[in-house]
Each structure stands twice: as C-alpha cells, then as structure tokens.
Design goal:
The complex is a heterodimer of chains A (about 150) and B (about 120).
Chain A lengths: L4 E3 L2 E3 L10 E3 L5 E4 L6 E3 H4 L3 E6 L5 E6 L1 E8 L2 E6 L9 E6 L6 E10 L3 E10 L4 E3 L5 E6 L4
Antiparallel strand pairs in A: 1-2, 3-4, 4-5, 6-7, 6-14, 8-9, 9-12, 10-14, 11-12, 12-13
Chain B lengths: L2 E5 L5 E3 L15 E4 L2 E4 L1 H32 L3 H16 L4 H5 L3 H6 L3 H4 L6
Antiparallel strand pairs in B: 1-2, 3-4
Classes of the chains: A mainly beta (about 150), B alpha+beta (about 120).
Chain lengths: ~150, ~120
C-alpha cells in the first residue's frame, strides 16, 4: 500500500493490494495507524512527543530548538521551569530528560521535579565519582514530554 | 521561538533579554531582582559559599583520615598532630572570620582559604 500525496484533487496514488486498513480517522479525529509489522494498530496522537526542547543551562538560558514550549524560566542553579504552548489534560504525562556528559568521571542527570498541566519543573545534577552530587547548570539539556494534550 | 525568563531568590521574574545579570552564576541562588538589574545578596551568598566549602572539604577530610590512620599505625606523634591540626582547619573553614565580615561578593570570593581548601572555585 502507498499513500504518496494529498492534493487539491484529493488523495492520489493510493494502492492497497492487500485490501488492509492501514489508517483510520474516527469521528473525533483520532488517527489509528497500523504497526510496523501490521499485526496491530496504534494511536498516532498518543505516540507523538507533545513537547520537547534542547537548551543550554550553563549561563543565560539559550534555547537551541524546541516544539510545544513557549518559555523557559531560570529558577536557580540546575533548576528550570518549562511552560507548554498547549496545556496537558492532566499531569499524568511522561517527562524524560537527558544531558551531555560534562567530563569522564562525572555523570549528568536531568529529571522532572514537578509535573503540572501547563508547566514542568526540571532539575539538572552533576554527580562526581566518589564525591556526591549537586545541582549544576548543564550545557546541553534535552527534555521530552509524551502525554495527552487537553 | 520560546521566551526565556529569570526568577530571583524571592520568586520575582523578568524577561531574560531585558535583565542585567551578574558576571557569573556562582551565587545564582542569591540573585535578587531590583527593576531590571539583578544583584547578589551577600547574606544569601554566604550560605552558598559555606555549602561550597563543605562540598570541597569532604574528600579532603576523607583523605586526611587515611593520613591520620597511617600516622597512628606508625605511632608517629608529630604526623598525628599535624593531621589533627589540618582536620581542625577543614572543620573550621566555614566559620572563618573573613566570611562573616565580607560585605561584598568580591570580598566573599577572596575569603576562600586556598591554604586549607586548595584552589578557589571563584578564581
């Protein structure tokens, strides 16, 4: 099957020799697509990252790139608040962070501090081998949010 | 593009692009906003400074414990006394008078005792 183009004349170049349903849009505009192997289906909306950002927190906050983030507030050392363009329907979303390692014997850790429908607060830490950990202004922080928008 | 803001120690917020900020972030938790200028509160900075001393001295105290144990095993009284003196200086470092009397951030940074704590993180 192949869907190559939706033009002004409608959907073009659709072939479906297997006569299988590969994309469904229901009355509430929820899109279901076939899995990679075709054995099951999955929700397109639920699978999308609703917000993500890559920013520099080592000095004045610099946003390198983002989606669905309207603002970042520098709240302190290794402590930021991201504001979403669109609020989530609840705070049961999944928020994950990442960071580029500072040096060989140190670990960089980024994690959510608190979840709210319109914002998420983010902590960044530096863990020194054999010398504990502390909040730290990391140079490359990535943060992704998957969940249900309102 | 997303906007960036700075929030000071009291929760006051300003658009980062309009703010005048300190030259470094050593005392970020002591930042205080007045108009569009962010300055560093010396009293709050002293708390951060002392925490930094405690962080830096922790491995130094651990290392000195080893020195003391070796002196104990060797029954080297002068080495034991030297180690006790050094550990005492490390324990007393956060209470140094230069920290208490510092009334500017520059004086506070200068209060780092390199003879006890090693290289200053504020140099």
């Amino acid at each position: 099957m192949a869907l190559t183009k939706i033009g002004s004349g409608g959907i073009e170049n659709v072939t479906n020799a297997a006569n299988a349903t590969f994309l469904t849009i229901d009355a509430s505009e929820q899109i279901t697509v076939a899995s990679d192997g075709g054995a099951v289906t999955t929700s397109l909306q639920k699978g999308l990252a609703k917000a993500w950002v890559n920013f520099d927190g080592s000095g004045p906050t610099v946003i390198r790139d983002s989606l669905g983030i309207s603002a970042i507030a520098d709240l302190g050392t290794g402590y930021s608040r991201l504001t979403f363009v669109s609020s989530f329907s609840n705070n049961d979303y999944s928020a994950t962070g990442s960071a580029v390692r500072v040096s060989g014997d140190q670990s960089s850790i980024v994690m959510p501090r608190s979840l709210a429908t319109a914002t998420v607060e983010v902590d960044s830490w530096l863990e020194n081998a054999g010398n504990g950990s502390r909040t730290f202004d990391l140079g490359t922080i990535g943060f992704n949010i998957h969940g249900d928008l309102a | 593009m997303a906007q960036t803001y700075i929030v000071d120690k009291d929760g006051n917020q300003i658009d980062a692009s309009t703010a005048t900020v300190p030259s470094d972030r050593h005392f970020r938790g002591a930042w205080s906003l007045d108009g569009t200028v962010i300055s560093e509160d010396v009293t709050a900075a002293k708390v951060i400074f002392k925490d930094k001393i405690r962080e830096v001295r922790a491995p130094l105290l651990d290392a000195e414990d080893v020195v003391y144990m070796k002196a104990l095993e060797a029954d080297d009284s002068s080495a034991k006394a030297a180690s006790v003196t050094k550990k005492g200086k490390l324990r007393d470092a956060p209470a140094a008078s230069a920290i208490g009397s510092a009334d500017t951030i520059a004086k506070l940074k200068a209060a780092w005792d390199t003879s006890v704590l090693g290289d200053s993180p504020y140099a």
